[in-house]
Amino acid sequence: MTSSTNNWMLIKIIKLFGALTPLEPRLSKKLMEPLISLIHSTTAMSLLYECISTVIAGVPNHTASIQLCVSKLRLYIEDADQNLKYLGLLSLSDSRQWLAQACLASRSQ
């Protein structure tokens, strides 16, 4: 997953893994490192969105990765393109349950 340069193929693979993570908990642990690497390195907004969606759906209790995803979603919300703003707000809406838990966890520390 980290060696491919074809963004559309990566998106399809990440969507597939995202659908499988609720069914196989061990898969999400194995996917974290490649997904975080892609989140840090990609400039493609479509690939970034799929990585963020997969992390939020597949590993909601990993606070550091959720915080990284929220910081990257800020790029979407601050963009001039209304479609990207919508996707950013939609992802934040989907992740609000885990965001509240992450905020409470960081507050108690």
Automatic annotation (TrEMBL):
Q: Which residues form the Clathrin/coatomer adaptor adaptin-like N-terminal domain?
A: 3-93
Q: Per the UniProt entry, what are the Gene Ontology biological process annotations, in alphabetical order?
A: Golgi to vacuole transport; protein targeting to vacuole
Cellular component aspect of the GO annotation:
AP-3 adaptor complex; endosome membrane
**What keywords is this UniProt entry annotated with?**
Membrane, Protein transport, Repeat, Transport
Where does the source fall among the domains of life?
A: Eukaryota
**Chief subcellular site?**
membrane
Q: Could you tell me where this protein is found in the cell?
A: Endomembrane system
Q: Per the UniProt record, which residue ranges are transmembrane?
A: none
Family according to the record:
Belongs to the adaptor complexes large subunit family.
Q: Which PANTHER family match?
A: AP-3 COMPLEX SUBUNIT DELTA-1 (PTHR22781:SF12), DELTA ADAPTIN-RELATED (PTHR22781)
Identification of the protein by name: AP-3 complex subunit delta
